[in-house]
Amino acid sequence: KAGVTQTPRYLIKTRGQQVTLSCSPISGHRSVSWYQQTPGQGLQFLFEYFSETQRNKGNFPGRFSGRQFSNSRSEMNVSTLELGDSALYLCASSLETGVYEQYFGPGTRLTVT
Amino acid sequence: GIQVEQSPPDLILQEGANSTLRCNFSDSVNNLQWFHQNPWGQLINLFYIPSGTKQNGRLSATTVATERYSLLYISSSQTTDSGVYFCAVYSSASKIIFGSGTRLSIRP
User: Fold this and answer.
1) pLDDT, tens digit, 9 for 90 and up, residues A46-74
2) Is the dihedral of CA B89, B94, B95, B96 positive or negative?
3) Looking at the partner chain, which of B95, B100, B101 has a beta carbon nearest the beta carbon of A56?
């Protein structure tokens, strides 16, 4: 089975712009979660989507949003980018929502200038 | 919310040495995973271990849920074991909480 894929792998944006990141889960996996990793804050949970519905949300401002499609692929969007949004964004998929093993993609490294 | 603490924060060893990494959590958890993050940022699954002991080659892990800790053992370290090791727990609030990681450096 192919693993979790994320596109793009690298991205450079300017403050104030918006960005959309994409995640394709492992085939058969229905839950997709997003995480932000920064040197200062470590790995932080953004949100989880299951059956096209947001199931859980971390402590991030409303500029961070996401969605999931019927084929379980997910996108996250960050509007009005700030310098502090520069981070590695990781997507993980699991079979179902809840206490299931998570598998991570390679990440998208976003740089905001 | 639940707190996850990993120790030590940094560990430098010679190739061939053994090591023990610890993960403490402040509340009951429904799940615990260990990951290795390679230099390119990829998180690689090591163990899914809410309780008990598992082994995979030179690596093994033990979780004692009643005492709220998990240990990751690495034996006969190799330079390719270098990287950051994270534990992550799934709290009752249905959120994944990561520890701050242990940075392991294996010197040849």
Assistant:
1) 999 999 999 989 999 999 999 999 999 99
2) positive
3) B95
